[in-house]
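Take a record:
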Amino acid sequence: MSNVVEPNLRDRIVIATTSPFRIVPCPAVSPRGAILWAAAVLGGGAAAAPAIAQGYATRQLGDWTIAASKDGSGCFISRAFDQPGGTTLLLGMDRDGSNHFSVLNENWSIRPQDRLKLTFRLTQGGYPNHQAIGIVADGKQGFVAAFDPKFPVSFAGSKALHIDRGNTPVARLPLDGSGAAVAELKRCVAGQHGPATAATEDDGIPRDPFAERPKGRRKR
């Protein structure tokens, strides 16, 4: 017998079941920050091409590739899966502790900037009805999402990641070797010396809140 729980995204909850997966709500992704990150990393083909930034050369750990962002703001890991449509997974981490996660597949019909609600299930945690943003890169369609700072830890300790859109399965991805990949990702980030944040968040705060505003016409 299963219980249906309507999550309150402001409160952290854990749904315990007989399954090894646990569900934990998380704040929504900032569309602007996520899209800018995807454009910088995916648009330039950085996941597939060797990169050297701040003295860190792209390296391979099993099925995982670890690379630094060109501006020195952080690093990312990627893995390609031999599945229909050629699924590609990327997890990026910036020096300020923020992270971005993306999955791409050439068979998907996601349009750029589509807003999606997806459920991410990890062996050591999960995120129900989490917001993701549609992107297109390297001839594939997919999405990008941001998570809380604990996501890389749960990702590293998990054996698999299941992604669903409502009752429709999106991806079933094995994460063997993710622990070593995330450990190397953190070492890469620690060696970067670029901007602390890869993209400015769209929080509604002007660049200079104290700048003099232009005077409007006076009412007669």
